[in-house]
TrEMBL record:
Pfam families: p450. The chain crosses the membrane at residues 5-23, 29-51. It comes from Aaosphaeria arxii CBS 175.79. SUPFAM superfamilies: Cytochrome P450. This is Cytochrome P450. Its cofactor is heme. Keywords: Heme, Iron, Membrane, Metal-binding, Monooxygenase, Oxidoreductase, Transmembrane, Transmembrane helix. It comes from the Eukaryota. Heme binds at C461.
Length: 526
Protein backbone atom coordinates (compact mmCIF):
# COMPACT_ATOMS: atom_id res chain seq x y z
CA UNK A 1 0.00 0.00 0.00
CA UNK A 2 2.86 2.42 0.74
CA UNK A 3 4.06 2.05 -2.84
CA UNK A 4 0.58 2.59 -4.28
CA UNK A 5 -0.11 5.64 -2.13
CA UNK A 6 3.35 7.14 -2.75
CA UNK A 7 3.04 6.55 -6.53
CA UNK A 8 -0.44 8.09 -6.56
CA UNK A 9 0.72 11.24 -4.77
CA UNK A 10 3.83 11.52 -6.97
CA UNK A 11 1.78 11.15 -10.18
CA UNK A 12 -0.82 13.64 -8.97
CA UNK A 13 1.79 16.33 -8.33
CA UNK A 14 3.59 15.35 -11.53
CA UNK A 15 0.40 16.14 -13.48
CA UNK A 16 -0.06 19.46 -11.64
CA UNK A 17 3.55 20.34 -12.49
CA UNK A 18 3.08 19.39 -16.17
CA UNK A 19 -0.05 21.57 -16.48
CA UNK A 20 1.72 24.52 -14.90
CA UNK A 21 4.67 23.92 -17.27
CA UNK A 22 2.24 24.07 -20.19
CA UNK A 23 1.17 27.57 -19.16
CA UNK A 24 -1.97 26.80 -17.04
CA UNK A 25 -2.48 28.78 -13.84
CA UNK A 26 -1.68 26.88 -10.63
CA UNK A 27 -5.38 26.94 -9.59
CA UNK A 28 -6.45 25.55 -12.98
CA UNK A 29 -3.77 22.87 -12.84
CA UNK A 30 -4.90 21.87 -9.35
CA UNK A 31 -8.61 21.67 -10.30
CA UNK A 32 -7.96 19.70 -13.50
CA UNK A 33 -5.58 17.29 -11.75
CA UNK A 34 -8.07 16.77 -8.91
CA UNK A 35 -10.87 16.03 -11.39
CA UNK A 36 -8.61 13.51 -13.10
CA UNK A 37 -7.76 11.93 -9.74
CA UNK A 38 -11.45 11.71 -8.75
CA UNK A 39 -12.38 10.22 -12.11
CA UNK A 40 -9.48 7.74 -11.92
CA UNK A 41 -10.38 6.67 -8.38
CA UNK A 42 -14.09 6.29 -9.06
CA UNK A 43 -13.37 4.15 -12.13
CA UNK A 44 -10.88 2.10 -10.16
CA UNK A 45 -13.28 1.59 -7.24
CA UNK A 46 -16.22 0.70 -9.51
CA UNK A 47 -14.12 -1.81 -11.42
CA UNK A 48 -12.91 -3.35 -8.14
CA UNK A 49 -16.51 -3.62 -6.90
CA UNK A 50 -17.66 -5.05 -10.26
CA UNK A 51 -14.83 -7.59 -10.22
CA UNK A 52 -15.46 -8.65 -6.60
CA UNK A 53 -19.20 -9.04 -7.08
CA UNK A 54 -19.35 -10.67 -10.55
CA UNK A 55 -15.98 -12.16 -11.43
CA UNK A 56 -14.08 -12.93 -8.24
CA UNK A 57 -13.14 -16.57 -7.50
CA UNK A 58 -15.07 -16.33 -4.20
CA UNK A 59 -18.24 -14.86 -5.72
CA UNK A 60 -20.21 -18.10 -5.42
CA UNK A 61 -19.92 -18.29 -1.65
CA UNK A 62 -22.95 -16.92 0.19
CA UNK A 63 -22.57 -14.03 2.61
CA UNK A 64 -23.59 -10.40 3.17
CA UNK A 65 -23.30 -8.45 -0.08
CA UNK A 66 -21.08 -5.77 1.46
CA UNK A 67 -18.74 -8.37 2.94
CA UNK A 68 -17.96 -9.48 -0.61
CA UNK A 69 -17.38 -5.90 -1.73
CA UNK A 70 -14.90 -4.74 0.90
CA UNK A 71 -13.13 -5.76 4.08
CA UNK A 72 -14.32 -2.47 5.52
CA UNK A 73 -17.58 -4.30 6.19
CA UNK A 74 -15.77 -6.74 8.53
CA UNK A 75 -13.98 -3.72 10.03
CA UNK A 76 -17.40 -2.18 10.73
CA UNK A 77 -18.71 -5.47 12.16
CA UNK A 78 -15.77 -5.87 14.52
CA UNK A 79 -15.59 -2.19 15.53
CA UNK A 80 -19.34 -2.05 16.30
CA UNK A 81 -19.21 -3.99 19.57
CA UNK A 82 -15.78 -5.63 19.39
CA UNK A 83 -17.58 -8.98 19.26
CA UNK A 84 -16.75 -10.15 15.78
CA UNK A 85 -17.33 -13.79 16.75
CA UNK A 86 -21.00 -12.96 17.36
CA UNK A 87 -21.28 -11.41 13.91
CA UNK A 88 -19.65 -14.50 12.43
CA UNK A 89 -22.04 -16.74 14.36
CA UNK A 90 -25.04 -14.81 12.98
CA UNK A 91 -23.65 -15.01 9.43
CA UNK A 92 -23.19 -18.79 9.72
CA UNK A 93 -26.75 -19.17 11.08
CA UNK A 94 -28.04 -17.29 8.05
CA UNK A 95 -25.78 -18.47 5.22
CA UNK A 96 -24.53 -21.94 6.25
CA UNK A 97 -21.17 -23.54 6.91
CA UNK A 98 -19.20 -21.65 4.24
CA UNK A 99 -19.60 -17.86 4.38
CA UNK A 100 -17.86 -15.15 2.39
CA UNK A 101 -16.90 -12.76 5.20
CA UNK A 102 -14.53 -10.66 3.09
CA UNK A 103 -13.87 -10.30 -0.65
CA UNK A 104 -11.40 -13.18 -0.45
CA UNK A 105 -12.08 -14.56 3.00
CA UNK A 106 -14.25 -17.56 3.81
CA UNK A 107 -15.32 -18.52 7.33
CA UNK A 108 -15.89 -22.26 7.65
CA UNK A 109 -17.84 -24.24 10.25
CA UNK A 110 -16.90 -27.81 9.39
CA UNK A 111 -15.00 -30.24 11.54
CA UNK A 112 -13.29 -31.65 8.43
CA UNK A 113 -11.85 -28.19 7.71
CA UNK A 114 -9.79 -28.10 10.91
CA UNK A 115 -7.06 -30.65 10.00
CA UNK A 116 -7.06 -29.54 6.35
CA UNK A 117 -6.42 -25.92 7.28
CA UNK A 118 -4.41 -26.21 10.49
CA UNK A 119 -3.21 -29.82 10.77
CA UNK A 120 0.43 -30.92 10.48
CA UNK A 121 -0.05 -31.95 6.81
CA UNK A 122 -1.82 -28.74 5.77
CA UNK A 123 -0.43 -26.76 2.85
CA UNK A 124 -2.06 -23.54 4.01
CA UNK A 125 0.13 -20.68 5.18
CA UNK A 126 -0.69 -17.85 7.59
CA UNK A 127 -3.26 -15.50 6.06
CA UNK A 128 -2.94 -11.85 5.09
CA UNK A 129 -4.06 -10.81 8.60
CA UNK A 130 -0.50 -11.54 9.71
CA UNK A 131 0.75 -8.87 7.31
CA UNK A 132 -0.57 -6.21 9.66
CA UNK A 133 2.90 -5.71 11.14
CA UNK A 134 4.55 -5.59 7.71
CA UNK A 135 5.65 -8.35 5.41
CA UNK A 136 9.41 -8.16 5.87
CA UNK A 137 10.09 -11.43 7.72
CA UNK A 138 13.38 -10.09 9.09
CA UNK A 139 11.61 -7.36 11.05
CA UNK A 140 8.62 -9.07 12.63
CA UNK A 141 7.86 -11.42 15.51
CA UNK A 142 7.57 -15.18 15.17
CA UNK A 143 3.79 -14.91 15.26
CA UNK A 144 3.62 -12.70 12.18
CA UNK A 145 5.94 -14.68 9.89
CA UNK A 146 4.06 -16.00 6.85
CA UNK A 147 7.04 -17.70 5.23
CA UNK A 148 6.85 -21.26 6.58
CA UNK A 149 10.54 -22.11 6.08
CA UNK A 150 11.68 -19.05 8.02
CA UNK A 151 9.04 -19.70 10.64
CA UNK A 152 10.28 -23.23 11.29
CA UNK A 153 13.82 -21.94 11.86
CA UNK A 154 12.75 -19.18 14.26
CA UNK A 155 10.49 -21.57 16.13
CA UNK A 156 13.48 -23.67 17.30
CA UNK A 157 14.74 -20.94 19.64
CA UNK A 158 11.24 -20.60 21.14
CA UNK A 159 10.93 -24.36 21.59
CA UNK A 160 14.19 -24.37 23.59
CA UNK A 161 12.91 -21.62 25.89
CA UNK A 162 9.60 -23.41 26.36
CA UNK A 163 10.82 -27.03 26.52
CA UNK A 164 9.81 -29.35 29.38
CA UNK A 165 13.36 -29.03 30.74
CA UNK A 166 13.18 -25.23 30.74
CA UNK A 167 9.74 -25.36 32.39
CA UNK A 168 11.22 -27.59 35.13
CA UNK A 169 13.56 -24.70 35.81
CA UNK A 170 10.71 -22.13 35.83
CA UNK A 171 8.42 -24.21 38.07
CA UNK A 172 9.73 -23.04 41.51
CA UNK A 173 9.41 -19.42 40.35
CA UNK A 174 5.82 -20.01 39.22
CA UNK A 175 5.03 -21.57 42.61
CA UNK A 176 6.61 -18.60 44.38
CA UNK A 177 4.32 -16.18 42.51
CA UNK A 178 1.24 -18.32 43.15
CA UNK A 179 2.11 -18.26 46.86
CA UNK A 180 2.08 -14.45 46.71
CA UNK A 181 -1.44 -14.61 45.31
CA UNK A 182 -2.47 -17.01 48.08
CA UNK A 183 -1.09 -14.55 50.63
CA UNK A 184 -3.20 -11.76 49.10
CA UNK A 185 -6.26 -14.02 49.17
CA UNK A 186 -5.62 -14.75 52.85
CA UNK A 187 -5.25 -11.04 53.54
CA UNK A 188 -8.59 -10.39 51.78
CA UNK A 189 -10.14 -13.45 53.44
CA UNK A 190 -13.76 -13.49 52.38
CA UNK A 191 -13.89 -9.97 50.95
CA UNK A 192 -14.63 -9.72 47.22
CA UNK A 193 -11.68 -9.84 44.82
CA UNK A 194 -11.86 -9.04 41.11
CA UNK A 195 -10.33 -12.23 39.71
CA UNK A 196 -9.97 -10.77 36.23
CA UNK A 197 -7.55 -8.26 37.74
CA UNK A 198 -5.80 -10.58 40.19
CA UNK A 199 -5.31 -13.28 37.54
CA UNK A 200 -3.66 -10.68 35.34
CA UNK A 201 -1.38 -9.64 38.22
CA UNK A 202 -0.32 -13.23 38.80
CA UNK A 203 0.12 -13.86 35.13
CA UNK A 204 2.15 -10.70 34.54
CA UNK A 205 4.42 -11.51 37.48
CA UNK A 206 4.96 -15.07 36.24
CA UNK A 207 5.64 -13.81 32.73
CA UNK A 208 8.14 -11.26 34.14
CA UNK A 209 9.93 -14.01 36.02
CA UNK A 210 10.00 -16.80 33.41
CA UNK A 211 10.09 -14.43 30.45
CA UNK A 212 12.76 -11.99 31.63
CA UNK A 213 13.90 -13.07 35.13
CA UNK A 214 12.42 -9.80 36.31
CA UNK A 215 10.07 -8.95 39.13
CA UNK A 216 7.19 -6.69 38.11
CA UNK A 217 5.74 -6.72 41.67
CA UNK A 218 2.06 -6.70 40.74
CA UNK A 219 1.16 -9.13 43.51
CA UNK A 220 3.36 -7.54 46.15
CA UNK A 221 1.91 -4.09 45.57
CA UNK A 222 -1.61 -5.22 44.64
CA UNK A 223 -1.42 -2.87 41.65
CA UNK A 224 -1.55 -3.77 37.97
CA UNK A 225 1.53 -2.81 35.98
CA UNK A 226 0.69 0.00 33.51
CA UNK A 227 1.82 -2.27 30.64
CA UNK A 228 -1.19 -4.52 31.27
CA UNK A 229 -3.55 -1.67 30.32
CA UNK A 230 -1.44 -0.95 27.26
CA UNK A 231 -1.68 -4.62 26.24
CA UNK A 232 -5.47 -4.44 26.28
CA UNK A 233 -5.58 -1.13 24.39
CA UNK A 234 -3.20 -2.55 21.81
CA UNK A 235 -5.26 -5.73 21.43
CA UNK A 236 -8.53 -3.79 21.09
CA UNK A 237 -6.87 -1.77 18.34
CA UNK A 238 -5.88 -5.00 16.54
CA UNK A 239 -9.31 -6.53 17.22
CA UNK A 240 -11.05 -3.74 15.33
CA UNK A 241 -8.67 -2.53 12.63
CA UNK A 242 -7.05 -5.97 12.24
CA UNK A 243 -9.76 -6.95 9.76
CA UNK A 244 -8.08 -4.52 7.33
CA UNK A 245 -4.44 -5.51 7.93
CA UNK A 246 -3.01 -3.08 5.38
CA UNK A 247 -4.72 -0.15 7.14
CA UNK A 248 -3.51 -1.33 10.54
CA UNK A 249 -0.02 -1.55 9.11
CA UNK A 250 -0.17 1.98 7.71
CA UNK A 251 -1.71 3.50 10.85
CA UNK A 252 0.86 1.81 13.06
CA UNK A 253 3.65 3.36 11.01
CA UNK A 254 2.36 6.93 11.10
CA UNK A 255 4.25 8.80 13.80
CA UNK A 256 1.67 9.99 16.30
CA UNK A 257 -1.10 7.62 15.20
CA UNK A 258 0.50 4.85 17.26
CA UNK A 259 1.58 7.18 20.06
CA UNK A 260 -0.88 5.50 22.46
CA UNK A 261 1.11 2.29 22.23
CA UNK A 262 4.53 3.86 22.15
CA UNK A 263 5.03 3.53 25.90
CA UNK A 264 4.14 -0.19 25.77
CA UNK A 265 6.36 -0.82 22.74
CA UNK A 266 9.19 1.07 24.44
CA UNK A 267 8.67 -0.92 27.62
CA UNK A 268 9.04 -4.21 25.66
CA UNK A 269 12.10 -2.90 23.81
CA UNK A 270 13.71 -1.75 27.09
CA UNK A 271 13.21 -5.14 28.74
CA UNK A 272 14.84 -6.93 25.82
CA UNK A 273 17.69 -4.42 25.63
CA UNK A 274 18.36 -4.66 29.37
CA UNK A 275 18.69 -8.42 29.04
CA UNK A 276 21.09 -8.05 26.14
CA UNK A 277 23.20 -5.52 28.00
CA UNK A 278 23.59 -7.84 30.98
CA UNK A 279 24.26 -10.87 28.82
CA UNK A 280 26.54 -13.51 30.29
CA UNK A 281 27.54 -15.95 27.57
CA UNK A 282 28.74 -18.57 30.06
CA UNK A 283 25.48 -18.86 31.99
CA UNK A 284 22.69 -21.23 31.00
CA UNK A 285 19.58 -19.20 29.99
CA UNK A 286 17.13 -18.86 32.88
CA UNK A 287 14.20 -17.31 31.00
CA UNK A 288 12.52 -17.25 27.57
CA UNK A 289 14.08 -13.95 26.46
CA UNK A 290 17.56 -15.31 27.26
CA UNK A 291 16.96 -18.34 25.05
CA UNK A 292 16.07 -16.02 22.18
CA UNK A 293 19.11 -13.79 22.84
CA UNK A 294 21.36 -16.85 23.11
CA UNK A 295 20.32 -17.86 19.57
CA UNK A 296 21.33 -14.36 18.38
CA UNK A 297 24.65 -14.33 20.25
CA UNK A 298 25.49 -17.86 19.05
CA UNK A 299 24.54 -16.83 15.47
CA UNK A 300 22.25 -19.86 15.46
CA UNK A 301 19.97 -20.43 12.43
CA UNK A 302 16.96 -19.96 14.72
CA UNK A 303 18.03 -16.43 15.74
CA UNK A 304 15.81 -13.39 15.33
CA UNK A 305 17.50 -11.76 12.32
CA UNK A 306 17.30 -8.10 13.39
CA UNK A 307 16.92 -5.87 16.42
CA UNK A 308 13.35 -5.06 15.27
CA UNK A 309 12.32 -8.71 15.10
CA UNK A 310 13.84 -9.47 18.51
CA UNK A 311 11.98 -6.50 19.99
CA UNK A 312 8.79 -7.69 18.33
CA UNK A 313 9.40 -11.12 19.88
CA UNK A 314 9.59 -9.50 23.31
CA UNK A 315 6.04 -8.24 22.75
CA UNK A 316 4.94 -11.82 21.99
CA UNK A 317 6.51 -13.04 25.25
CA UNK A 318 4.67 -10.33 27.16
CA UNK A 319 1.27 -10.56 25.45
CA UNK A 320 1.07 -14.30 24.64
CA UNK A 321 2.80 -15.17 27.90
CA UNK A 322 0.55 -13.18 30.22
CA UNK A 323 -2.85 -12.33 28.81
CA UNK A 324 -3.76 -15.88 27.73
CA UNK A 325 -3.02 -17.59 31.04
CA UNK A 326 -4.67 -14.75 33.01
CA UNK A 327 -7.89 -15.20 31.06
CA UNK A 328 -7.99 -18.97 31.41
CA UNK A 329 -7.36 -18.76 35.15
CA UNK A 330 -10.13 -16.17 35.64
CA UNK A 331 -12.55 -18.28 33.57
CA UNK A 332 -11.64 -21.46 35.47
CA UNK A 333 -12.32 -19.72 38.80
CA UNK A 334 -15.65 -18.54 37.38
CA UNK A 335 -16.67 -22.11 36.49
CA UNK A 336 -15.50 -23.42 39.88
CA UNK A 337 -17.55 -20.77 41.70
CA UNK A 338 -20.56 -21.56 39.54
CA UNK A 339 -20.34 -25.34 39.67
CA UNK A 340 -19.94 -26.37 43.29
CA UNK A 341 -19.97 -30.10 42.44
CA UNK A 342 -16.93 -29.69 40.23
CA UNK A 343 -15.25 -27.56 42.89
CA UNK A 344 -15.89 -30.16 45.61
CA UNK A 345 -14.77 -33.02 43.38
CA UNK A 346 -11.47 -31.44 42.41
CA UNK A 347 -10.82 -30.42 46.02
CA UNK A 348 -11.44 -33.97 47.21
CA UNK A 349 -9.04 -35.33 44.58
CA UNK A 350 -6.40 -32.76 45.53
CA UNK A 351 -6.79 -33.56 49.23
CA UNK A 352 -6.41 -37.26 48.44
CA UNK A 353 -3.26 -36.60 46.41
CA UNK A 354 -1.87 -34.37 49.19
CA UNK A 355 -3.08 -36.02 52.40
CA UNK A 356 -0.71 -33.96 54.55
CA UNK A 357 -2.23 -30.67 53.44
CA UNK A 358 -0.64 -27.58 51.83
CA UNK A 359 2.80 -28.23 53.33
CA UNK A 360 3.03 -31.39 51.22
CA UNK A 361 2.11 -29.66 47.94
CA UNK A 362 4.38 -30.59 45.03
CA UNK A 363 4.04 -30.20 41.30
CA UNK A 364 4.79 -33.86 40.69
CA UNK A 365 1.93 -34.94 42.96
CA UNK A 366 -0.50 -32.42 41.55
CA UNK A 367 0.22 -33.40 37.93
CA UNK A 368 -1.29 -36.79 38.72
CA UNK A 369 -4.67 -35.19 39.51
CA UNK A 370 -5.77 -35.32 35.88
CA UNK A 371 -9.18 -33.88 36.75
CA UNK A 372 -7.45 -30.46 36.98
CA UNK A 373 -6.45 -30.85 33.32
CA UNK A 374 -10.03 -31.87 32.47
CA UNK A 375 -11.28 -28.65 34.08
CA UNK A 376 -8.70 -26.61 32.18
CA UNK A 377 -9.54 -28.31 28.88
CA UNK A 378 -13.25 -27.72 29.34
CA UNK A 379 -12.62 -24.07 30.23
CA UNK A 380 -10.48 -23.70 27.11
CA UNK A 381 -13.27 -25.23 25.02
CA UNK A 382 -15.89 -22.78 26.24
CA UNK A 383 -13.64 -19.74 26.61
CA UNK A 384 -10.57 -20.07 24.37
CA UNK A 385 -8.32 -17.01 24.80
CA UNK A 386 -7.88 -16.88 21.00
CA UNK A 387 -11.52 -16.51 19.95
CA UNK A 388 -11.78 -15.88 16.21
CA UNK A 389 -8.28 -16.19 14.85
CA UNK A 390 -6.23 -17.73 13.38
CA UNK A 391 -6.46 -17.01 9.63
CA UNK A 392 -4.81 -19.15 7.00
CA UNK A 393 -4.37 -18.80 3.23
CA UNK A 394 -5.17 -21.69 0.89
CA UNK A 395 -2.41 -23.00 -1.39
CA UNK A 396 -2.43 -21.85 -5.04
CA UNK A 397 -4.14 -25.08 -6.18
CA UNK A 398 -7.00 -24.48 -3.72
CA UNK A 399 -8.45 -26.78 -1.09
CA UNK A 400 -11.30 -29.31 -1.19
CA UNK A 401 -13.33 -29.37 2.05
CA UNK A 402 -16.10 -31.98 1.82
CA UNK A 403 -18.31 -30.98 -1.13
CA UNK A 404 -16.88 -27.48 -1.30
CA UNK A 405 -13.84 -26.39 -3.31
CA UNK A 406 -12.07 -23.31 -1.89
CA UNK A 407 -10.02 -21.56 -4.59
CA UNK A 408 -6.32 -20.81 -4.15
CA UNK A 409 -4.90 -17.82 -2.27
CA UNK A 410 -8.06 -17.32 -0.28
CA UNK A 411 -8.06 -16.49 3.45
CA UNK A 412 -9.87 -19.12 5.46
CA UNK A 413 -10.89 -19.20 9.11
CA UNK A 414 -12.54 -21.66 11.45
CA UNK A 415 -13.60 -19.58 14.48
CA UNK A 416 -12.38 -21.65 17.48
CA UNK A 417 -15.02 -20.46 19.94
CA UNK A 418 -17.84 -21.37 17.55
CA UNK A 419 -16.57 -24.75 16.36
CA UNK A 420 -15.81 -25.81 19.95
CA UNK A 421 -19.42 -25.06 20.97
CA UNK A 422 -21.07 -26.63 17.92
CA UNK A 423 -23.75 -29.14 18.91
CA UNK A 424 -23.07 -31.29 15.84
CA UNK A 425 -19.87 -32.48 17.49
CA UNK A 426 -20.12 -31.47 21.13
CA UNK A 427 -22.86 -32.96 23.32
CA UNK A 428 -24.48 -30.39 25.67
CA UNK A 429 -22.11 -27.84 24.11
CA UNK A 430 -22.89 -24.93 26.43
CA UNK A 431 -22.56 -26.89 29.64
CA UNK A 432 -19.40 -27.08 31.69
CA UNK A 433 -18.65 -30.81 31.91
CA UNK A 434 -14.94 -31.43 32.62
CA UNK A 435 -15.59 -35.21 32.60
CA UNK A 436 -15.95 -35.07 28.81
CA UNK A 437 -12.12 -34.86 28.77
CA UNK A 438 -11.75 -37.67 31.33
CA UNK A 439 -14.10 -40.38 32.59
CA UNK A 440 -16.90 -39.60 30.06
CA UNK A 441 -14.59 -39.10 27.09
CA UNK A 442 -15.95 -41.96 25.01
CA UNK A 443 -19.61 -41.42 25.86
CA UNK A 444 -19.35 -37.68 25.00
CA UNK A 445 -17.47 -38.35 21.73
CA UNK A 446 -14.68 -35.96 22.70
CA UNK A 447 -11.98 -37.54 20.55
CA UNK A 448 -14.09 -37.01 17.41
CA UNK A 449 -14.90 -33.38 18.13
CA UNK A 450 -12.91 -30.40 16.80
CA UNK A 451 -10.71 -28.98 19.57
CA UNK A 452 -8.14 -26.26 18.93
CA UNK A 453 -7.57 -23.81 21.81
CA UNK A 454 -3.80 -23.91 21.26
CA UNK A 455 -4.03 -24.04 17.47
CA UNK A 456 -2.81 -27.16 15.65
CA UNK A 457 0.02 -28.43 13.50
CA UNK A 458 3.15 -26.43 12.77
CA UNK A 459 1.78 -23.37 14.53
CA UNK A 460 0.56 -25.09 17.70
CA UNK A 461 1.22 -22.70 20.58
CA UNK A 462 4.80 -23.32 21.77
CA UNK A 463 3.76 -22.09 25.23
CA UNK A 464 1.10 -24.75 25.86
CA UNK A 465 3.18 -26.77 28.35
CA UNK A 466 4.04 -23.62 30.26
CA UNK A 467 0.36 -22.64 30.25
CA UNK A 468 -0.64 -26.05 31.70
CA UNK A 469 2.09 -25.79 34.36
CA UNK A 470 0.85 -22.31 35.37
CA UNK A 471 -2.75 -23.49 35.49
CA UNK A 472 -2.11 -26.72 37.39
CA UNK A 473 -0.03 -24.94 40.00
CA UNK A 474 -2.41 -22.02 40.49
CA UNK A 475 -5.71 -23.93 40.41
CA UNK A 476 -4.52 -26.73 42.70
CA UNK A 477 -3.10 -24.24 45.22
CA UNK A 478 -6.18 -22.02 45.27
CA UNK A 479 -8.63 -24.92 45.54
CA UNK A 480 -6.56 -26.62 48.23
CA UNK A 481 -6.49 -23.49 50.39
CA UNK A 482 -9.80 -21.72 49.74
CA UNK A 483 -13.51 -22.19 49.22
CA UNK A 484 -14.49 -20.21 46.15
CA UNK A 485 -17.80 -18.39 45.90
CA UNK A 486 -19.46 -15.54 44.04
CA UNK A 487 -19.30 -12.29 46.00
CA UNK A 488 -22.68 -10.93 47.21
CA UNK A 489 -24.49 -9.38 44.24
CA UNK A 490 -22.25 -11.12 41.71
CA UNK A 491 -24.02 -13.60 39.44
CA UNK A 492 -21.22 -14.08 36.92
CA UNK A 493 -23.66 -13.47 34.07
CA UNK A 494 -21.93 -10.35 32.71
CA UNK A 495 -18.58 -12.11 32.98
CA UNK A 496 -19.94 -15.10 31.10
CA UNK A 497 -21.49 -13.13 28.23
CA UNK A 498 -19.98 -9.66 27.93
CA UNK A 499 -16.42 -10.53 26.91
CA UNK A 500 -14.84 -8.87 23.89
CA UNK A 501 -13.13 -10.41 20.87
CA UNK A 502 -9.97 -8.32 20.67
CA UNK A 503 -8.88 -10.95 19.12
CA UNK A 504 -7.66 -12.36 22.44
CA UNK A 505 -10.62 -12.64 24.77
CA UNK A 506 -11.07 -9.55 26.96
CA UNK A 507 -12.97 -10.33 30.14
CA UNK A 508 -15.14 -8.05 32.27
CA UNK A 509 -14.49 -7.90 36.04
CA UNK A 510 -15.64 -10.85 38.16
CA UNK A 511 -15.95 -10.56 41.95
CA UNK A 512 -15.33 -13.74 43.92
CA UNK A 513 -14.73 -14.51 47.57
CA UNK A 514 -11.98 -16.82 48.73
CA UNK A 515 -12.56 -18.16 52.24
CA UNK A 516 -9.59 -19.92 53.83
CA UNK A 517 -10.28 -23.59 54.50
CA UNK A 518 -9.42 -25.22 57.78
CA UNK A 519 -6.23 -27.27 57.44
CA UNK A 520 -7.11 -30.69 56.03
CA UNK A 521 -5.22 -33.82 56.83
CA UNK A 522 -6.88 -36.73 55.09
CA UNK A 523 -4.20 -39.17 56.19
CA UNK A 524 -5.26 -38.72 59.85
CA UNK A 525 -8.96 -38.55 59.03
CA UNK A 526 -9.18 -42.22 58.07
C1 LIG B 1 -3.71 -21.01 27.95
C2 LIG B 1 -2.76 -20.28 27.42
C3 LIG B 1 -2.50 -20.15 25.94
C4 LIG B 1 -3.32 -20.37 24.87
C5 LIG B 1 -4.76 -20.86 24.87
C6 LIG B 1 -2.54 -20.07 23.68
C7 LIG B 1 -3.03 -20.18 22.39
C8 LIG B 1 -2.29 -19.91 21.26
C9 LIG B 1 -2.77 -20.03 19.91
C10 LIG B 1 -4.17 -20.45 19.49
C11 LIG B 1 -1.75 -19.69 19.09
C12 LIG B 1 -1.77 -19.67 17.55
C13 LIG B 1 -2.05 -18.27 17.09
C14 LIG B 1 -1.91 -18.15 15.60
O1 LIG B 1 -1.94 -19.15 14.86
O2 LIG B 1 -1.75 -17.00 15.20
C15 LIG B 1 -0.63 -19.34 19.91
C16 LIG B 1 0.58 -18.92 19.43
C17 LIG B 1 1.66 -18.63 20.22
N1 LIG B 1 1.74 -18.70 21.59
FE1 LIG B 1 0.26 -19.28 22.82
N2 LIG B 1 -1.29 -19.67 24.06
C18 LIG B 1 -1.21 -19.73 25.43
C19 LIG B 1 -0.13 -19.42 26.22
C20 LIG B 1 1.12 -19.09 25.75
C21 LIG B 1 2.27 -18.86 26.58
C22 LIG B 1 2.30 -18.97 28.11
C23 LIG B 1 3.29 -18.53 25.77
C24 LIG B 1 4.69 -18.21 26.20
C25 LIG B 1 5.34 -17.16 25.88
C26 LIG B 1 2.78 -18.57 24.39
C27 LIG B 1 3.51 -18.29 23.26
C28 LIG B 1 3.01 -18.35 21.97
C29 LIG B 1 3.78 -18.02 20.79
C30 LIG B 1 5.25 -17.61 20.75
C31 LIG B 1 2.94 -18.18 19.69
C32 LIG B 1 3.25 -17.92 18.20
C33 LIG B 1 3.37 -19.21 17.45
C34 LIG B 1 3.04 -19.04 15.99
O3 LIG B 1 2.82 -17.96 15.53
O4 LIG B 1 2.98 -20.05 15.27
N3 LIG B 1 1.46 -18.91 24.43
N4 LIG B 1 -0.97 -19.50 21.23
Amino acid sequence: MYHFIASFIAIYFGIVYTFVGQGHSFADALITSTLMAVSFNSSLLSSIVFYRVFLHRCRKFPGPFLAGVSKFYAFYQSAKEVRYYKETEAMHAKYGDFVRVGPRQISIMRKSAVPLIFGPQSNCIKGTFYGNAGNDPTKISINMIRDEARYKLRRRAWDRGLSMKAIGNYEPRITEKVNLLLAQMRRNNGTPMDVTKWSMMLSFDIMGSVGFSKDFDNLKTGKLHPATHAIHDHLTHIGTIGETPWLLNILSSIPGAAAGFASFFNFCAREMEAKQNNWNSDAQPQDIASWLIKAVKDKDISASPTKESLTDDSRVIIIAGSDTFANVLACTLFYLAKDKDVQSKVRRLIDEALPDGPASWSYDKIRKVTYIDDIVNETLRLKPPVISQPHRQTPARGLQIDEQYIPGNVNVTVPPILIMRDERWWKQPFEFIPERFGSRREEMGTDDAPYMPFGLGVHTCPGNNLAYANLRISISSIVQNFDIDFAPGETGEAFDKDFLDTPLIKLPPLYLEFKARKPVNTSTQQ
